[in-house]
Amino acid sequence: MxxxxxxxxxxxxxxxxxxxxxxxxxxDALKTDIVQQQIVxxxxxxLEGSARAERESENSFxxxxxxxxxxxxxxxxxxxxxxxxxKHAQGEWLNPWIEGNRRTWLKKTFAQLLAEQIGGTEExxx
Length: 126
What we know:
mainly alpha
């Protein structure tokens, strides 16, 4: 048995717009979570405050730290970072969200924000 389905282009465009909003909101939530986790090296707060969510392409964003020294600190986890202001300060501070214990948080946050955009919960089947 086979069935043919025709996609409603207007509804698909609306859904893509909601995905885009949920991604933007997820990036904002990610920036907040990073600050709350106290993981970015901090002396004056300029590095931590320089985080920017940038659009890479349609429905794709990345997080960028814009200080001139951000990449040097990020790529050198062997440095001895002061921890008096951010108690978990370290290099490669995004790794928990990329491949570590915060990765699940990121997926769940996006799913929750998308469900809010489309007007349901992630458990809804209809």
